[in-house]
């Protein structure tokens, strides 16, 4: 895979805006470990090699268990994740595949008991930011190495 364009060099302001949305952790009312899992799962769904590498490494650095990182693609089939994490991952997947799912009512109803209104907005903003960054990484063929 050959880099098509260094988007940060070409237009640093635009890419910095997306990165700032992703880094709003301090203001998000989501625990860092949950945000790390969501970032990684969205990147897996989108198939962005650069972002998968980045978010896996960050999650490990932040102390996430290797098994939870390794098993994230099959989160439904393992007991390694809390009910809150499962609700967030289902929401993240549905919002990421919005054209295919239109975010079903069942996913919304499953998330509501675990997230306040502000948290669900924060979670949706995080998913949106990661999706945008994934699209930059994939479109411009950014490589993890």
Q: Can you tell me about this structure?
A:
The chain is mainly alpha-helical. It has a single domain, classed as AhpD-like, CATH 1.20.1290. Helices cover 66% and strands 0% of the residues. It is built from 9 helices and no strands. The protein is globular.
Question: What brief labels describe this structure?
Answer:
single chain; 145 residues; mainly alpha; AhpD-like; 66% helix; globular
Topology:
Layout: H1 7-10, H2 12-22, H3 32-46, H4 49-61, H5 66-70, H6 83-96, H7 98-101, H8 105-111, H9 117-139
Overall spatial form: globular
CATH architecture: Up-down Bundle
CATH topology: the name is AhpD-like
Indicate the CATH class: Mainly Alpha
Span from first to last CA?
A: 10 Å
Please identify the structural class as seen in this structure.
mainly alpha
Uncertain stretches of 5 or more adjacent residues? none
> Helices and strands, in N-to-C order?
HHHHHHHHH
Strand-residue fraction?
under 5%
**Tally of strands:** 0
For the largest beta-sheet, the strand count, sense and barrel status come to: none
**Please, how many domains?**
1
């Amino acid at each position: 895979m050959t880099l098509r364009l260094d988007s940060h060099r070409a237009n640093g302001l635009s890419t910095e805006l997306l990165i700032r949305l992703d880094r709003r952790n301090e203001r998000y009312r989501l625990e860092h470990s949950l945000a790390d899992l969501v970032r990684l799962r969205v990147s897996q769904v989108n198939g962005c090699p650069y972002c998968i590498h980045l978010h896996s490494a960050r999650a490990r650095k932040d102390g996430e268990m290797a098994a939870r990182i390794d098993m994230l693609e099959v989160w439904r089939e393992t007991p390694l994740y809390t009910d809150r994490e499962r609700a967030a991952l289902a929401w993240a997947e549905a919002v990421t595949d919005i054209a295919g799912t239109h975010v079903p009512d069942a996913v919304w109803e499953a998330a509501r008991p675990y997230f306040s209104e502000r948290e669900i907005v924060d979670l949706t903003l995080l998913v949106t930011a990661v999706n945008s960054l994934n699209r930059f990484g994939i479109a411009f063929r950014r490589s993890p190495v």
